[in-house]
Design a protein that fits this description.
It is a single chain. This protein is α+β, with helices and mostly antiparallel strands and about 475 residues long. The chain folds into three domains: about 10-55 and about 105-225, no CATH class; about 230-320, no CATH class; about 355-465, Immunoglobulins (Immunoglobulin-like, Sandwich), CATH 2.60.40.10. It contains 16 helices and 16 strands. The strands form five sheets. Strands 8, 9, 10, 12 and 14 form a five-stranded antiparallel β-sheet that branches. A four-stranded antiparallel β-sheet has the order 13-11-15-16, with no helix packed on it. A three-stranded antiparallel β-sheet has the order 3-4-5, with no helix packed on it. Helix 3 packs antiparallel against helix 16 (about 330-350) and helix 7 (about 145-170) crosses helix 9. The longest helix has 26 residues, at about 145-170. It starts with 9 loop residues before the first helix and ends in a 5-residue tail after the last strand.
Length: about 475
């Protein structure tokens, strides 16, 4: 059975799906938002490339030492058992993203997303070597002569060096970067270190150097579901159609009313500076990353024409429709409340965190036994994990029942840093002291070196007969 022929209405969809990518040549733009974007790029990349070289308490300030299962973050040492804190941190990041998106659109995409940040750097390198957007376009459309290849090879060589340094820094968060540098200089890098330097480096080279806006448009899931977090009071970058239309060119300084046109002179500069190649005058589009380059360039044009700024601006749908905008609304208050609660819980958990884990497992094979002396005995297996950077000695005490006796090591329990030990313990009680068949007992373990800061109490059950 033959397939149905494509209808005229199918043609635009087919062209959109299979359209070959056309390289974009965004023009350089200056303005308030361009400065903010530059400051964000400088701060974020400064943190990324500089943080591994900062030392704290004798070791790297931020280091994820996977072989030793230690994660150093500014004087705190975390272990795989501390995954709870990472979970809370991810929840905070997600709620913050939702809140800022509901408040002011794609701030993350425009100013802090790694794809945006590294693309800005690669474009800056490209402009320094190849020239501005007009010169780049002219070169790409011109002859493939020696000058063309010289410029292109130089650009890609710088890109590759920067990419490898990016990969090297990434690995420096998992292997002490000074040690990594020494191994690199002596050609003694391990196979996994070499793999990740090249993998992360070439991933950055491909995403920020070549794919650029394609990552935002086709690969990033955030672009697809961001609209569910928008409402009519969300700040978005919009073109004021009522003020700007009808569009048309005119001489500088000509009042719009004198020529029967809106304030938009149809210069298309807002399209030329857009890093994803959209026309903001067509309305809100999922491809828009919220970089505000169109605002800067349009304000510059309005200044030259003698018109008020704000033809393209951060605004809300309600404002464009002449309605009142409420930036503080129930959705924002809910996000703020959740963010505050979870952040406070994380801070409290970190402040009260004890670098010790203590688990009690009662022997389930036998409920209880009776000794030759007529005492009731329960057997426990204690699991002690030292999450300090240095070895510890612990002492143990058990309470909760009158006349309770502990058989086993209770003093000088030595545990190396990061080590886990199993400690068998027998607890005996005179059956006369048992009021119920299941009594609560309290196990307390504390450091003999620093008992005020390192101590934990855990409850357990003691089983036995009840004398009548």
């Amino acid at each position: 059975m033959s397939e149905p022929a494509a209808t005229p209405n199918d043609q635009p969809i087919e062209e959109e799906l299979y359209k070959k990518r056309e390289k974009l040549y965004p023009r350089e733009v200056h303005g308030v938002f361009a400065v903010l974007r530059l400051l964000a790029v400088a701060a974020l990349l400064g943190i990324y490339y500089g943080l591994p070289w900062v030392n704290w308490d004798g070791h790297q300030a931020v280091l994820f030492d996977l072989p030793a299962r230690k994660f150093y973050i500014f004087g705190l040492t975390f272990w795989p058992q501390d995954f709870f804190y990472l979970s809370m941190l991810l929840i905070i990041a997600a709620i913050a993203l939702f809140m800022f998106t509901a408040l002011a659109g794609r701030l993350w995409c425009g100013y802090a997303c790694p794809q945006t940040v590294w693309t800005e750097i690669y474009m800056w390198i490209e402009q320094k070597i190849e020239g501005n957007s007009r010169q780049q376009r002219k070169r790409d459309q011109g002859p493939r002569n020696a000058a063309y290849f010289r410029v292109k090879i130089t650009k890609h060589a710088v890109w590759l060096l920067f990419s490898l340094w990016t990969g090297f820094t990434f690995v420096g968060y998992f292997t002490p970067i000074t040690e990594l540098w020494t191994n690199f200089m002596t050609w003694e890098l391990g196979p996994w270190e070499t793999f990740w330097i090249f993998f992360y480096g070439f991933a950055t080279y491909g995403n920020a150097g070549f794919m650029r806006e394609q990552v935002c448009i086709y690969m990033c899931p955030y672009a697809r579901f961001q609209s569910v977090m928008f409402d009519h009071d969300t700040l978005i970058i919009s073109y004021d159609e009522k003020r700007g239309d009808p569009r048309g060119s005119r001489k500088r300084g000509t009042p719009s009313a004198d020529v029967g046109l809106g304030d938009c002179i149809d210069c298309s500069l807002c399209v030329q500076v857009c890093p994803v190649g959209i026309d903001i005058r067509d309305g809100l589009q999922y491809q828009c990353i919220g970089c505000a380059a169109c605002i800067d360039v349009c304000d510059d044009v309005m200044d030259k024409m003698g018109y008020p700024r704000g033809l393209v601006k951060y605004t809300t749908e309600n404002t464009l429709q002449g309605k009142t905008t409420k930036l503080v609304r129930p959705r924002i208050l809910v996000y703020v409340g959740i963010l505050t609660f979870v952040s406070a819980a994380l801070v409290y958990a970190l402040v009260t965190r004890v670098p010790l884990e203590f688990n009690i497992l009662r022997d389930r094979n036998v409920l209880y036994t009776e000794t030759d002396e007529g005492l009731v005995q329960n057997v426990y297996n204690l699991k002690i994990i030292n999450m300090e950077d240095q070895p510890q000695r612990y002492r143990l005490a058990v309470s909760g029942i009158e006349g309770l006796q502990v058989i086993g090591q209770t003093e000088g329990i030595e545990v190396a840093s990061g080590a886990v030990i199993d400690l068998p313990l027998r607890v005996q009680v005179d059956p006369v002291e048992l009021k119920t068949s299941s009594s609560e007992v309290m196990f307390r373990i504390e450091s003999e070196i620093n008992p005020d800061d390192i101590s934990i109490q855990e409850r357990a059950r003691f089983l036995g007969p009840v004398l009548r």
